[in-house]
Amino acid sequence: MPHSHHSHSGQFCIHAAGTLQEGVLEAIRQGFQVYGLTECKSITPEEFALQFEHFLVEAHRIKLTHYITPLDLEELDSLLQRRRGLVEYIVGSVHHVNGIPIDFDLVTFRKAVESMESTLPATKDGGFLSVKPEIIEHLDLCRLYNSTLQLSEYPEALARVERNIIYAVRYEASFEINASALHKGWSTPYPGEDLLQIILKHGGRLILSNDSHGPHDRAGVTELWFLEHSETPNASGRNIKATKMDRPWAADAFWTRFS
């Protein structure tokens, strides 16, 4: 698809490669219509504040010089207040439990599970929803090392996840279809089909990340959305809105570049 709302660069993320500008230039070369610049949050607040300041400066420099729309940027509340107007949208997700990463390796993931008072390995509360992120990414990252885990086996956890989905739908968030799960042995992108059906049941909007080329037809997905600037602030106070594609995704002229 010609839309990407989730990207990283080696310039600001240790597990990525290339510079921010190189990524933008490649997106322009490939004809992307929307290319969002987002970045990971460092675990150390001091490091994050400094790195994020540099990221904001570079992202907006590139936006002005290369005329692409990097709708972007992931932040937390203090920096959101300081940089209101520069942060155009937020990609929200949970990567740590009690300060312990859940997607670093299996050993560390197990430590995160053991650190919880509850015995529910799938429980993920949506504290990050307090900043009303416009995009919810890999909602079931907690299944990274066990893709066959069925949340239906943990009704309390599933109820919490559904509660968070309903809350996000009500303030008009979009849910990311992220194909990175396929690179890690999953049979589907994030989110798994059980959560996808819950999202669809409650009228959730689906949006694509940079390495996803569309959801499977069997999942019952009939429409896709993308972010664009809005003159009117959304529920989070940011001038961004989700817009539904006005034609079937496969009919977009973007695909003629690859035929």
Automatic annotation (TrEMBL):
The keyword Hydrolase applies. It catalyses: L-histidinol phosphate + H2O = L-histidinol + phosphate. Residues 5-179 form the PHP domain. One of its GO terms (molecular function) is histidinol-phosphatase activity. The keyword Iron does not apply. GO terms for cellular component: cytoplasm. GO terms for biological process: L-histidine biosynthetic process. It is an enzyme of class 3 (hydrolase). This is Histidinol-phosphatase.
